Amino acid sequence: MNTTQPPYLKKGDKIAIVCPAKKLLKPIDHAITVLKDWGLEVVIGKSVTASYNQFAGSDELRAADLQQYLDNPSIKAIICGRGGYGTVRIIDDLDFSHFEKNPKWIVGFSDVTVLLSHAIAQLNTQCLHAQMPYTFDDATPESLLSLQKALFGTKQEYSYKSKFENKAGNCSGILIGGNLTLLCMLQGSVSEMDFTDRILFLEDVGEHEYSIDRMLRMLKRAGKLKNLSGLIIGAFSDISEEKIPFGQTAEEVIFDIVKAYNYPICFNFPTGHIDNNLTMIVGANVKLQIETHNVNLKYI
User: Locate the LD-carboxypeptidase C-terminal domain: which residues (predicted)?
Assistant: First the structure.
């Protein structure tokens, strides 16, 4: 089934920045300047400057802030300021009825995987797994350009060399994915993505190897990994060290769990908690070509 593609942006469009999860701990002036340089009018939500414990305001404030921009037809995209934790606390309080009639791009990653997954699972609407204002300061020019191109409708193609040996093959299909921890947390909920015949990408940060092993085995036992068209393993960064070593790298852990499946698998894809976090259009049709150490992902 085809997904709904929100209208691409054009110069002069209004976009909103909101924080559905953790509060900002530093200014995002650089990101605002970049977005304005792209020709966009930037509206700042109340949650951007709000603070309640570790959150960007209370659950009620964050939900109301996001809701007003979901409903406002003059806002053409919503960019989440940062991740952290907290989006799952407000997702069930949001009303997407206006959004369904007037879809717009939702942008973010990490904890924002909750919104991205819900947009596909319940609304069948494409969204962007991409850099957020909080990460713009350290983002590579390539990653920011990939976000600009995705928002403004330029078709993209990514090619890179992986360090870990891939499982070669070609496939095409709808691209889904996001943060492994959040995708596992959403299993059994109305926000759970359908993995069947999809090309899945995964990333995570700050996890132990045993935790990655546990989450992937949970997905495997639940039957979520057996019917994929392809698997893209992004950055698993800042792996937490153990007093007693686990004995495998994150890539080795993952490969052991999925190697028996027939679909192609690539590693070290530039997506996730890294400076070169390339924009992934969740819900888009893509073609994936994987060789032993060369990978090409093309939006079609």
Answer: 172-288
Number of domains in the chain: 2
Domain ranges, residue 273: 157-299
State both tokens at 280: 């992934």
Task: Residue 219: give its domain's CATH number.
Answer: 3.50.30.60
Q: Is 30 a catalytic residue?
A: no
Residues 170 and 254 in one domain: yes
Q: Which of 47, 110, 143, 146 is catalytic?
A: 110
Tell me 82's DSSP state: -
How many Å apart are CA 127 and CA 258, to the nearest integer?
27
The catalytically annotated residue of 143, 207, 211, 273 is: 273
| Extended strands (E) in the chain | 14-18, 41-44, 75-80, 105-108, 127-129, 157-161, 169-179, 199-205, 230-237, 265-266, 280-282, 285-290, 294-299
How do residues 193-241 score in pLDDT, each as one tens digit? 999 999 999 999 999 999 999 999 999 999 999 999 999 999 999 998 8
The answer to pTM > 0.90 is yes
Do 191 and 264 belong to one domain? yes
